[in-house]
Specification:
two-stranded parallel ribbon; Aspartate Aminotransferase, domain 1; alpha/beta; 405 residues; Aspartate Aminotransferase, domain 2; 13 strands; 2 domains
Length: 405
């Protein structure tokens, strides 16, 4: 029997909203025009043009990762695929892994290490807090791990592990390799791979880099690469085998068909970062997130995480009593065409501050949509006060820095 052509095939024009949504959640983010245009191009994945693109991506990525490593690889997959590539290449069966877990994605790293067959110790951190350095030292002494995993910015609950450099120093002093998830923080917050002693940094395209979902980056240190080269066992993962990926990224050889359109988009996203410079990009993210946070509090709402542990890249906002997060999201999406993110557990909604999200016109539209939606749902908020505070903070930053973008 031949399966018949399905009925009721709907064209995209009838599925997508008439007006595109402003993507202000925890990713993906709005695409710059040049990135979107690059993503529409298809070229030969093994030709000379692609080889030039790959070389440029590696050079620009080294700047963004702040590394001199010669082991930067692209991954045809989400940030989680890059995360898994780091784990399967650096964690061997029966090895000891210490996973610092203070949310959903840091726990995912631990679960990946368990699937490889490692003996994983969870250092559970109470939400929404950052890990205590003395506790890390005690666990390192007790576990004596070969690998430590940690997330720089825990997207799920908007916690910023600002003591990451100290964690890396403690781990390296004990001979452990460090895997860092920087999916939502790379290019939005400082991360210095070489000087901090990080052995693997992973990121996705769709957040801080302001590129498309599904194409990711990973950088291995020389120490990590020596470990990978010395492994005698055969990885069970073929696509995620770093030595096989190295054939394409450094030896102009075939691994699998590269996501050429996505790599072209990534090239343009990285180029825009290099033009802006990391210093200017960090400053832009800092001032826009500070303005958004001030505006949210002026509305009369509370931020979920205390300032000392708060992530700027994704801001968590407590949902008022008597209202649900999904109701806020629905109202904002349907009425104001602004989309933010829900929760992985806590009663919060989350607004992204990554890449193209950090533009003043996006902030005004998002804050107004948030406040008006909560007011419509019966919450008590002061929308004019929130918008006025947002404008005031941005104006102060304008006077200090001499720019308003």
């Amino acid at each position: 029997m031949i399966v018949p052509v399905p009925d009721h095939i709907i064209p995209l024009d009838n599925i997508l909203p008439e007006e595109p949504l402003l993507m202000m959640g925890a990713g993906p983010v709005p695409l710059p025009a040049r990135v979107a245009a690059a993503n529409s191009i298809v070229i030969n994945h093994l030709g000379d043009t692609m080889a030039t693109v790959v070389q440029q991506i590696k050079r620009m990525s080294a700047y963004v990762f702040q590394t001199e490593s010669q082991h930067i690889l692209g991954v045809a997959g989400p940030g989680s695929a890059a995360m898994e590539m780091a784990v399967v290449n650096l964690v061997v069966p029966d090895s000891r892994v210490l996973s610092i877990c203070n949310g959903f994605f840091s726990t995912r790293l631990a679960q990946m290490a368990e699937r490889v067959g490692a003996e994983v110790t969870y250092l559970q951190v109470a939400e929404p807090e950052v890990v205590d350095i003395e506790q890390v030292a005690a666990y390192l002494d007790e576990v004596d791990p070969q690998v430590v995993t940690i997330v720089q910015g825990e997207t799920s609950n908007t916690v910023f592990n600002r003591n990451l450099p100290a964690v890396c120093a403690l781990a390296k002093a004990r001979g452990a390799m460090v895997i860092v998830d920087a999916v939502c923080t790379l290019s939005t917050l400082p991360l210095e791979m070489d000087s901090w002693g990080v052995d693997a940094v992973i990121t996705g395209g769709q957040k801080g880099l302001a590129s498309i979902p599904g194409v990711s980056l990973i950088a291995f240190s020389e120490c990590a690469w020596d470990f990978i080269e010395a492994r005698q066992d055969q990885l069970r993962h073929w696509c995620l085998d770093a030595k096989l990926a190295d054939q394409f990224w450094y030896k102009n050889s075939y691994h699998y068909t590269a996501p050429v359109s996505g790599l072209l988009a990534l090239h343009e996203a990285l180029r825009l970062i290099c033009i802006e410079t990391l210093e200017q990009r960090f400053a832009r993210h800092s001032r826009h997130s500070a303005a958004l946070q001030a505006g949210v509090e002026a509305l009369g709402l509370s931020l979920y995480v205390a300032p000392e542990a708060r992530l700027n890249s994704v801001v968590g906002i407590c949902v008022p009593e008597g209202i649900t997060g999904p109701a806020i999201l629905k109202q904002m999406s349907e009425r104001y065409r602004v989309e933010i993110s829900g929760s992985f557990g806590p009663k919060i909604v989350r607004i992204g501050q990554m890449g193209e999200q950090c533009r003043s016109h996006h902030l005004f539209r998002t804050l107004h949509a948030l406040g008006s939606s909560i007011k419509t749902l019966g919450g008590v908020v002061d929308v004019p006060a929130g918008v006025a505070q947002l404008e005031m903070v941005l104006e102060v930053e304008l006077q200090i820095r001499g720019q308003f973008t």
